[in-house]
Write a structure and sequence with these properties.
Helices cover 49% and strands 13% of the residues. By secondary structure, it is an alpha+beta fold. Strands 1-3 form a two-stranded antiparallel ribbon. It has a two-stranded antiparallel sheet with strand order 2-4. The protein is elongated and about 55 Å long.
Length: 108
């Protein structure tokens, strides 16, 4: 019982990260937050303010990093994903898109 409570506390206190490896084949997971913010007419500054209003920690710099379409996002803390989803009322699948590489034709 004690171990379960400790493990639960540990998970609540630590930030778990999700990595997006870039495979050599061309398949990629795309972060769609910049598009969503543009569709809704929101800025990164406003996103940071909205996230803080909902009680989640977010710096303006962090929000600009998430909203920058040119930033190569490789890691994302699940706490951050949760904060963005809760604030914008989205599912994680709305923010992440898997783009498969087109199959190559065989010569022959």
């Amino acid at each position: 019982m004690w171990r379960r409570a400790t493990a639960s506390w540990y998970c609540q206190q630590r930030s778990v990260s999700v990595s997006f490896p870039i495979p050599s084949g061309g398949d990629v997971v795309r972060w769609r937050l910049p598009e969503i913010l543009e569709e809704r007419g929101l800025t990164a500054y406003r996103l940071a303010a909205m996230i803080r209003e909902n009680g989640y920690p977010m710096t303006v710099r962090g929000a600009y990093r998430l909203a920058d379409p040119d930033h190569d996002l490789r890691r994302l803390a699940l706490d951050t994903l949760n904060a963005v989803c809760a604030t914008l009322r989205l599912d994680p699948g709305d923010l992440l898109e898997y783009v498969a590489d087109k199959p190559k034709r065989k010569r022959g």
